[in-house]
Specification:
single chain, 681 residues, alpha+beta, Purple Acid Phosphatase, chain A, domain 2, Jelly Rolls, eight-stranded antiparallel beta sheet, 10 helices, 37 strands, elongated
Length: 681
Amino acid sequence: MIKNRSCPGRWCAIWTVMLNFALPLSVNPSFAQDVVGPIVGTVESTTANILYRPGITETKLRLSLRAQGELQQRVMATASAENDYVAKFSIKGLEPTTVYTYEIADASGRVLVPADQKYAFRTANPARQGGRVTVSFASCVDSEPNKIWNEMAALGTETVFLMGDTPYIDSSDLGVVRDRHRKFLQVPGLAALGAHTPVVGTWDDHDFGRNNGNGRNMMSGKGLTRQAFMEYRAHSQFGNGREGVYHKVDLGMIEVFLLDPRYFSQTGPSPVDPSQPTGFGNDQWQWLLQSLRESQAPFKVLACGAIWQDKKNQETDDLFTYWYERDALLDYIKSENIGGVVLLGGDIHVARHLRHPKRVGYDLHDFIISPGHTRVITSLDVYHPSLEWSLVEGWQFLTLTADGTAGEPRLIAEFRQPDSKVNQKVEISLEDMTPAVEDHHQDLRARWTFDDDFKNSSSLGDRNDAVPVNDPSIVAEGISGGAVRFHATKEQFLTVPRSFLDDNSAAHSVSLWFKAESLPEHGSTQRAFLLESTAEGRPSNVSAWNLSLGLRTAPNANDINLQLFTHTLQPALKPEMAPTAISQGPFDTWVARERLLEEWNHVVFTFDSKSLHLYLNGKQVAKHTLPVPGPASGFGGLVLGGHRAGTGRNFNGFIDEVTVWQRALGETEVNAMFTEFQHQE
């Protein structure tokens, strides 16, 4: 007898009965090629959806619904050749938090699915506080025996979300697509689970019909793959009713938004940037914004088959390809003060947890769950400055528990494998996912004062503390308190191991004070960098210098070149191509040597995806228009007092009060900062 301690009362007894019965009649090997289900689909507090395929027979079916043994209602549906003999039951007017058993009979009255506790579901608890709900997510699962389904059942999972490549199809032939869906839902563990636990989801490329498939290269086949998907999923909604498969499921404490970045992608202009191809499409975009704005759930999951970052393999089936829509969505969440949001993706055959600092007014947690089978892709476990944890193993699934039963509501994420193995557990309080509406320091991303140490004093904290290399020292004679002194001959510098800006930052500013003890000699090839960003959080020569400010010689012997470079995203040059990172610069500004040598100077540069502005001592001294407009390319950290490789082009002198903002400052603000520190000096 299997025991389950994760759910209370009578529902636990039902789970126990289900787990100890043999497989349902619907997966009996004698007619496994024909019968599918029953499979419970979307279940919310007052509604439920169920599908059943009785075989290759056209017939009317009757579902009888009972609660505590009493007949509640009967619902009719038809199994017809038009829908591959799949009947759909849409049930309304149910009571919340109630266990219902069901029976299915054909037109003659012959019982096909008996009234038995193996065939039951529980409606959701609509409470927005004080409740507890656990849901599971899996992606990249094929039609083969798999222990994750039994594991989900044993945990008392209340809804299973299939995140795409569930199953693998890679065809738009309607017969093939239907056959693959049938075989997938007939897998014994999943079939048994789906008889009593809601199973819903979205698609990714392989079940959409093609590896790296999008709405453009699947234009002639996506209608057929959508038809079969709709037949073999019992959802309450499929996209806008005509196109796409996006929908949402409201479970009270948690609302899951199942997104579709496949059907509409590459088919028209983006609703946020008409010069770029869309990823989500206009209808889905408007639906998502409205649904997020109206959601009352404490926790909200934005889930899709693709991942939200760059896969870094030049494929176009990640949301990095459509960074303008991804970032506009996250900016919307921030501007509308929408709390409790997490991201979820699959696809890459690696499980990962990322935490994007202050991205939406609070830290944005980003979960990737893959694969549910055993085939991993080690090369896609790539560097990202927000990466907290990863695991390259198979048989993985994720549970999210929204728990409001004890004190502050919290979201608990567990990366799991069969045999009750928990590989990683992340707990996030709702308070930590609530934006501080009047926090005027949200845009301050990093600050190193160097008064006593190398610590970062912004809200990002110790994840962005600077690390000294070759013993640069803190001295008392800063512009305000202490400063860090660098000796170029000793190749001293500081390194910051993680990025402090949003992915593909659209606008930011960097401010610092410096006093040079020497400058590159006129006529030489010498260069000295005040700072430069790094690719992966450690010094290297890899191109990633979105932030780059250096000193080199100028044509006039009396001048020095205060030189900027940047590294940005170039939009895709043609449809179905990924954006690429490009170097832009140098951008030169001549400054009098005597102004910079042995004097404290305040320098600020700002970036707005179209231009770089350079300010010296409170005044704008240059505006450089980018030849190719675009946001920052990805980078992983920073070198202060040197260039990205750390050694070889080091600065000789003092640096103080380095500050970074997640926006472009204006000249009035820059002048005010300069004036403030002048008074302190």
